[in-house]
Amino acid sequence: MKSSAGYSQYADALITPQFGDRLIARGYCDFVSGDITDTDYTGDLSKCGDQITYFIEPDVEIHDYQKNGVVKPQELESESVTMVVDRAKYYCVKLDRVDEKQVCFIDDWTNAFLKRASYNMKRLIDPEVLMRMAIETAPTNKGMDAGKESQSQDLGEIGNPVPISALNIIEVLTRLDVVLRESCRWEDGAMFVVLPNIARNALMASDLKAAYLTGQAQSPLLNGKFPLVIMGFNVYFTDMVPKVLDVATGKQAYWIVAGNRKATGFAQQLEDHEIINMENSFGKYYRGLWVYGSKPFLPDALAALYATF
Fold it and tell me: Which secondary structure element, helix H or strand E, spans residue 42, and what is its range?
């Protein structure tokens, strides 16, 4: 602190700045890719190869039969789907030997940036996986006439997003339910929906604010907690839901994905971290590499909602 005019200024010469040995933590949000995909495929790609192909269960046609009728054999078609490990991300941090020695809390510093590197990588994966799921969702499970049987469920499309509010959010979730059931992909306990955090506004003002309707001891109005399962969906909230500016409406629109967690395969083939001595200087490089891929194997086990809030 500066002294008044005419008095000695000791601040710059005698008072030593102090640095705390604790790091101020950054914010950490949740990531969802691991919970909404099937990661069993990692084992098949852990040894070698950059892609893996699986064959789809063959379909058999059923015909009416009449006595003495001619039976026509069916030739089965061999359908397959391939997941390619085609994504990679890295980090590389330089740390000089002098800094390594002089920074008093160097171990905490190092552990902190390594933790942050791993977190930032996972955060980048979520929007990639969710967007791919939305794009590759079966045509019958998205759009303004979704539904394999009824073609009656409006899930929105570019230029015509579904406006979601407290009045209709439960009904809109029901549309996703109907679409997935019409695809015969509903499996109790395995279904999910990924909502943007802004959806909390609509849910909090909907009928779910009443404790007796949620089965919880307290209303979400008191504790801010929604049921983990709504309309049979395991609900995940994240700020990584893919969003775009819908030009026709001038609003931010979200691609909300719902479905069976077995629908999409995810494989992390390589996660490597290493410390390397610098060649032309004293110090080290801390670096890491992730190699991974994802693929919706069952497009009709997903449903994509294009909506605004």
Answer: helix 42-45
What's the CA gap between 95 and 153, in Å, rounded? 56
Total domain count, the chain? 1
Residue 46 C-alpha from the chain's centroid: 22
Q: How far apart are CA 272 and CA 291, in angstroms?
A: 9
What percentage of residues in the chain have a pLDDT greater than 90? 42
Residue (of 22, 236, 31) closest to 111 by Cα position: 22
Q: What pLDDT digit, counting tens, does each position of 19-61 carry?
A: 455 545 444 456 788 889 987 766 666 667 778 888 888 889 8
What's this model's pTM, rounded to 2 decimal places?
0.79
10 backbone φψ class: left, alpha, beta (φ>0; ψ -120 to 50): alpha
Range of the domain at 253: 134-264+299-308
Q: What is the CATH number of the domain that holds 253?
A: 3.30.1930
> What is the overall mean pLDDT for the chain?
84
Name residue, tokens 């490597």: 272
